Structures
1.
Amino acid sequence: MPVEDSKGKLVGLITSRLLLRHFTHQHKLNGKLATCVKDIMIKDPMTVAPNTTIVQAMRTMRSNKIGCLPVVQNDELIGIITEMNFLRISGRLMERLEEELDRE
């Protein structure tokens, strides 16, 4: 989930992994305190521009071991690329390849 300031500028990112890690750790401590988003978010997350190629985005995510990549234009969040997007793309490509092989 993206975190934006009052002007709509991306200032952080909260992932399902972060939430899981946080609540697992808090459970071990028997913590009952409320946690603020700013306390667990990834501050100033890595981003890409809309003209970044899919291959460049994939390489960035892989080399930085991150599961999502916000797409920002003029300091405004316009999208997010996730691991699931790449799974879908890969699945479609494999299905097309399989169809072509079946036709031969």
2.
Amino acid sequence: MVKVKLKKDKIVAHLAKKNLSQNWLANKLEMSSAYISQLLNGKRMPSPEMRKRFLNYFEHLTFDELFEILE
């Protein structure tokens, strides 16, 4: 199984640019704010379903811009 990590800088920059919070993003992606925090801090890896949610929301970014593949 391939391990994938969120690229925190892209997410945080997007939220800051639009003056949005992690809690707002959690609600938008239908997940808990604690889970978003764990993903952004690299403590959890996003499941394929979570990766789809991020890609759908951040449609202007590619997979490689949002995620880092760890092997």
